[in-house]
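Progress against Task 2.4 (sequence-to-structure conversion) is shown through the following example record, which the project officer requested during the mid-term review.
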Amino acid sequence: YWGRVPRELMRNGAEIFYGKQQSAAKTKDAAEELKNNIMQIIQKTGCEKVNMIAHSKGGLESRYAISQLGLSPYVASLTTINTPHHGCAFVDWLLEKMPKCICNWLTKRYNNIMKSLGDTNPDFYAAICNLTSHYCEIFNREVPDAPDVFYQSVGSKMKSWNSAPFPLNLSYLFVRCFEKENDGLVSINSMKWGSHFRMASTNGHRGITHGDMIDLNRQNINGFDVREFYVELVQELKQQGF
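Structure tokens generated for the chain above:
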């Protein structure tokens, strides 16, 4: 999932663990899985706290685990990557306009794919419903940041529809109709959370997609080294005492 990033971080001295929560589940259910896995890491290693780096909806799950499931004493920092903190307006529209039969077909197809990849009980529909702007508005009120955890966020954007192959090139145009600049799935404004927000950028015409931020396709992008980006990010956390 994170491409070449973990190996590069380990090469620079970081110790890496994975959240291992299911990819398609209700935010609260995935947060419970995440919390249990982190507590196992704490017990196994004897470390006092972890630094969490979470991509996409994993950022919402991390926030919930920290704020609502008692994980905050064990977390030094949370860095969210292209997370839809304020939801996705196009998801609201899709759920309202999409015929139920198509929604059911997509849900079944995605769930079957996720089961083949290891998820035990995927629920694509529930996961999507937790990404609406309405849900996230309520979520943000009910899930306050923990005062003893450092929160920051990262975002990126595509610069044109041809910055990515299908389906992100299509979804980029769709999201732009609702929320302007985006990474193919999430708008820039929705990505902002915490005390600091940074934009990953490149000087080229390509831009940086939702998948590029986790090195999904293992591509070298002119003007943006995703591996070095995370090395610098973790180095900064270390320098701040986290």
